[in-house]
Specification:
- Chain A has one domain: Maltoporin, Chain A (Beta Barrel).
- Chain A has five helices and 36 strands.
- In chain A, the strands form six sheets. Chain A has a 22-stranded antiparallel β-barrel.
- The N and C termini of chain A lie far apart (64 Å).
- With 380 residues, chain B is mostly beta strands.
- In chain B, 5% of the residues lie in helices and 48% in strands.
- Chain B has a five-stranded antiparallel sheet, with no helix packed on it. A four-stranded antiparallel sheet of chain B has the order 5-6-7-8, with no helix packed on it. Chain B has a four-stranded antiparallel sheet with strand order 9-10-11-12, with no helix packed on it.
- In chain B, a hairpin with a 6-residue loop joins strand 26 and strand 27.
- The chains are: A mainly beta (676), B mainly beta (380).
- At the A-B interface, strand 24, strand 25, strand 28, strand 29 and strand 32 of A face helix 1, strand 22 and strand 28 of B.
Chain lengths: 676, 380
């Protein structure tokens, strides 16, 4: 049985390995299908806000200044400005922040940092609050998948994807070095210094080193009040975070190509403030803590040969350590828990693109990923996972028509330290199809279909007492139609307008849900849920100019009906799924005048329910926050000094994103930035 | 231009700044059956609510009117911050007072039984169950003193004066103590050791109520939970097993000798005693079928024979996903069974005739679990 599984793994493995290690073989395979070739040179295109019309698949991007100006602590805060996104935020700087795109669930979001996937084989969720905006050039959100052809197979492997791109050094004539020092401070006793050094070593080699430290006590006032009832204001305790981050990267250019390599280290210690539930005031205090170490090195190489064939190689090694402790010596009400988890990941990808004509391209990619998880849990099976992803994609372009089709093969094999504890192998093909039609120079009509699944995580399958190794993958199917309009108006007040409007229908089948096994304290995972999502996403982006004032406006709106159709006999059949508002949106207005800049943003999350039972007991009021910032820039000789003052949640609204996890009220931030 | 811009921003601010205040969720009344007068005026049902959601809630059923009132605590106690609390684990009546043990709020809520209005709280960390004797309440708690090894932390029983609501004494027992019974001036508490898997506790601690000291430990079975005292001086105690090889069982302890006299192969997730009839059910999860196997039984405590393998006789048991709470009306012998469903949406309360036919059912709160009958009635 055991060896049988192994054999199966290797047989299937060989096909993908061939493509990984012998690009030429893969090329030959592709040549058998097509025999014409055409020059195509490649560049990593960092898609910026002005270019949505060119995308065949819905994408939203915040980049450069627009990204830095947001009153945002982390990438998580920035994601709130995209339409179709629900951020699950447990509050405060240190609180877990995960994203749910178009109600498909957090586990269906792929997260990529500089082109390479960030994984969490343990629970499949990436805490977006951990990623600093300090050195971020762009954050993009793709529904479906990125429509580039030359990309790793991993890029096809999730229902939607977030790409974070680190700032890449760019030097003017005669420039050799850039230095930047930033110091942020403000509410929650936050101290956040960071430094950046970029250096140009030669015409073909530059480097970037970025270090950051953050401390916050995480203390903030929160209020719970009921009409004609109680009214209490308390201070959030044990929400402190101490974090260090260091990143170093090398950027090289080649003839018809480029390479990059980076090392990343993140270390943090944080407290868990816990759910704000009824307690005798001041009697007990939460004291549970978590320590994290995250380290990875990754490299990427891209080159175009003879114009016809392009190669992209990516590799990564990651080590993640998590230590959680709940200690009754510090908090008498708690039970003792002290667990350490160690994850390792090795990843290699090779991708190949063939440009036969300008109008016809094809690509093949093969990724291999190996994950391990060790934990000092009772009876833990210590799973290892081998994942092979193979993708084939092609794109056709005739005048106004653009079509892209791809298919992904996923093969997964788990082994465990304990005999017969591993889940069975899984092998599946999943397709995606996207098309767009251009009308005139301003209008694009687009549509896509994608079917993909997420694998059960190590926790879903193997967590002692809870895991269920017979779990099957959770599938999503997405249908999207949309239109984009982009127009530049010359010297009018409104200089440019970009509009995107998409309507979609999604299904989530075999949804992995936790259900109680025997009692409140024993749950297990099963494939049970079925969800249908119908929604509309809209964004309108305008650039304006008048009388020396430049400003831009960005509006995003989402309307969603996400219904749980799991149990036909249930009273709650068809109920809106938890935490998904029917309406949500954001507005951002930024204006600059001489050395001044004013920034205002508004976020709205409409009424929603905290359970599929859409009854008054589970009703959550809409919430909305207003954030404002003013920035003044001075030129002091060669140095540029920037001062920013921010006031967030201006109206001091008391709100929760997640039940029993209060969010901060009005808070302030001061930023001093010196660039040399 | 800039003026317009600022006016626009100000307008947005003003327009969007009026948010309605969050109100207290009122109770809902449902007439579920015809009213009938009797010595039992009604019952309270405590819904546990999922951990970390602060959703424990209290329901009341009035036999005279046949009206089920869901979620009565919040509107009767608007001044109590964050309502009833997080995870309601037990409810009992003693004298004129109603006691609700709120596990993850670490307190016992004391209410007037005739109004369900707040009177006092008793702070007990990680409190589980409550029982009474001669003016004192006894509350089991997981949170005993922390020894050198924080992982080997014993539980305790707190002795609470019901006149002052002050803690009078405490007694350290086994690991993670659960239900208790009192017999012959001795308190028996079931030690589970549920946090110490696979090294579960397997003992019942016996506390002498005069000295309030643990006088002995009776070795019974692993992972003990429920306890019922029959009229022959026998304690019926359930063992939850280890969820792997050791199945759930029911043990009989003779309080005269403090020895285990019987072990029945009946899974006992929950049980309630009415006369000589011990009503019980067991839920066992099976990975192979991906479903719960639920078994019901009535055991005669005199003969120790299984009288019935299903006290629900009309097929309604197939509708019940996860039986969670059980109670039998002392007068009419009507059987109440709650269904916790998926734990994250409201559960259902079923009422069966003594013959096991469904009489009525009603939607309760999240995880309806603990029922206590009252003779005193609930006033508005």
């Amino acid at each position: 049985m055991y060896t049988g599984k192994y054999a199966g793994f290797w047989v299937k493995g060989v096909v993908s390995f061939a493509a990984v290690w012998f690009p030429a073989a893969a090329a030959l395979f592709a040549q058998a299908d097509v025999d014409t070739s055409k020059v195509y040179s490649l560049h990593e295109v960092v898609v910026v806000g002005q270019r949505p019309a060119a995308e065949i698949i819905p994408v939203q991007t915040l980049s450069g200044e627009a990204l830095q100006r947001l009153s945002a602590h982390s990438v998580a805060d920035a994601l709130r400005y995209f339409s179709g996104v629900q951020l699950k935020d447990y509050g405060g700087v240190g609180g877990l922040k995960t994203v749910n795109i178009r109600s498909l669930g957090t586990n269906h979001v792929g997260v990529f940092y500089d082109g390479i996937a960030i994984g969490n084989a343990q629970n499949g969720q990436v805490d977006m609050g951990r990623f600093s905006l300090d050195n971020m050039e762009a954050v993009s959100l793709y529904n479906g998948q990125k429509s580039a052809l030359l990309q790793p197979a991993h890029d096809y492997a999730s229902a939607s994807a977030i790409y974070m791109t680190m700032r890449r050094p760019a030097f003017g004539d005669g420039e050799k070095s850039h230095f930047r020092l930033t110091y942020k401070t403000g509410s929650f006793d936050a101290l956040n210094p960071s430094a950046l050094w970029e250096h140009k070593w030669s015409k073909h080699l530059s480097s970037s080193v970025n270090v950051e430290q953050l401390y916050t006590s995480g203390k903030y006032k929160f209020r719970y009040a009921k009409k004609d009832g109680y009214d209490t204001t308390e201070v959030r305790q044990n929400g402190d975070v101490t974090m260090w981050r260091a990143e170093a990267a090398l950027f090289g250019t080649l003839q018809h190509g480029e390479w990059r390599a980076k090392a990343y280290y993140y270390r943090s210690e944080r407290g868990y403030p816990g759910a704000a539930v009824r307690e005798v005031p001041g009697k007990f205090k939460h004291a549970d803590r978590q320590w994290d170490d995250n380290f990875f090195v990754q490299g990427s190489f891209r080159k175009s040969f003879s114009g016809v064939y392009s190669l992209l190689l990516n590799g990564k090694y990651a080590y993640d350590y998590l230590h959680y402790r709940s200690d009754p010596r510090l908090d008498v009400a708690t039970m003792y828990v002290d667990n350490q988890y160690r994850q390792q990941e090795a990843y290699f990808s090779s991708a190949h693109e063939f440009a036969f004509f300008d109008s016809w391209k094809a690509a093949l990619a093969s990724d291999f990923r190996f994950n391990t998880l060790d934990a000092d849990l009772q009876d833990f099976v210590s799973p290892n996972r081998y994942l092979l992803l193979t993708s084939a994609a092609t794109s056709l372009h005739f005048s106004a028509f653009h079509v892209q089709a791809s298919v992904l093969h996923t093969y997964v094999h788990d082994i465990t330290r304990v005999l017969n504890a591993a889940a069975g192998d899984k092998s599946a093909f999943t397709p995606a199809l996207a098309a767009s039609y251009q009308l005139g120079s301003d209008w694009h009509f687009r549509a896509f279909y994608k079917r993909i699944f997420r694998l059960p995580t190590f926790n879903d399958l193997y967590y002692t007492f809870i895991g269920n190794k017979s779990l099957q993958p959770e599938y999503t199917t997405q249908y999207n139609i949309g239109v984009t309009y982009a127009h530049s108006f010359g010297n009018a007040l409104l200089r440019r307008l970009d509009v995107q409007l998409d309507a979609y229908y999604n299904e989530v089948e075999n949804k992995i849900v936790a259900i109680p096994a025997d009692n409140q304290f024993r749950w297990t995972m099963i494939n049970l849920g079925y969800v249908e999502v119908r929604g509309v996403d809209a964004t309108v982006h305008g650039w304006w100019q008048a009388a020396g004032v430049q400003f831009d406006t960005r509006l995003a709106y989402t309307c969603q009906r996400a219904q749980d159709f799991t149990s036909p006999g249930s009273d709650w059949y068809g109920g809106q799924i938890p935490y998904i508002p029917w309406h949500s949106g954001s507005a951002v207005v930024g204006g600059s005048y001489r050395g001044w800049r004013l920034h205002y943003s508004f976020i709205y999350t409409g009424e929603r329910y905290e359970s599929t039972a859409n009854i008054p007991e589970n009703y959550a009021l809409p919430w909305y926050t207003h954030d404002m910032a003013v920035t003044r820039t001075f030129q002091l000789g060669a140095a540029r000094l920037q001062l920013t003052a921010e006031i967030n949640n201006l109206l001091n609204q008391a709100y929760e994103v997640v039940q029993c996890y209060p969010m901060p009220g009005r808070n302030y931030k001061l930023i001093i930035k010196v660039e040399l | 231009m800039r003026k317009t811009f600022f006016i626009l921003m100000l307008t947005t601010l003003v327009v969007s700044s009026c948010r309605k205040e969050e109100g207290i969720v009122p109770s809902t009344n449902t007439t579920v059956t015809e009213g009938e007068a009797g010595t039992i005026a009604g019952f309270f049902l405590l819904n546990e609510g999922n951990m970390g959601n602060n959703k424990a809630s209290l329901d009341y059923f009035d036999y005279e009117t046949g009206v089920y009132s869901k979620n009565i605590y919040a509107e009767r106690n608007p001044g109590v911050v964050k309502e009833l609390g997080d995870v309601g684990n037990d409810i009992q009546i003693y004298g004129s007072k109603l006691y609700a043990v709120i596990n993850c709020s670490h307190l016992v809520e004391v209410m007037d039984v005739r109004t369900a209005r707040h009177l006092a709280v008793v702070s007990i960390p990680n409190c589980r169950y409550i029982t009474f004797d001669r003016g004192f309440a006894y509350v089991s708690s997981y949170a005993g003193p922390v020894q050198i090894d924080p992982n080997a932390r014993l539980g305790y029983v707190a002795k609470v004066d019901t006149a002052t609501f002050q803690i009078a004494d405490s007694c350290v027992v086994g690991y993670q103590p659960e239900e208790m019974v009192i017999c012959n001036n001795k308190l028996y508490v079931a030690n589970s050791g549920g946090y110490r898997a696979p090294d579960y506790d397997n003992t019942v601690s016996v506390i002498d109520l005069n000295s309030f000291k643990e006088v002995k430990k009776i070795t019974v079975g692993i992972n003990l939970h429920r306890m019922e005292l029959d009229r022959y001086g026998n304690i019926w105690a359930s063992s939850r097993g280890d969820y792997y090889h050791a199945r759930s069982k029911t043990y009989v302890i003779d309080t005269k000798t403090d020895l285990v006299t019987d072990a029945l192969p009946l899974p006992g997730s929950n049980m309630t005693l009415s006369g000589d009839s011990l009503y019980m059910y067991g839920t066992e999860w099976s990975y192979s079928t991906g479903s719960h196997t639920v078994s019901y039984a009535i055991v005669n405590t005199q003969t120790r024979q299984v009288v019935s393998r299903n006290f629900i006789t009309d097929g309604t048991d197939k509708e019940i996903e996860v039986p969670y709470g059980i109670a039998v009306h002392p007068g009419t012998k009507e059987i109440l069974v709650t269904d916790a469903g998926d734990y994250v949406t409201p559960g259902t309360l079923y009422c069966f005739t003594p013959g096991g036919k469904k009489k009525w059912s009603v939607t309760a709160g999240d995880i309806p679990a603990h029922i206590v009958f009252t003779r005193q009635g609930l006033q508005n």
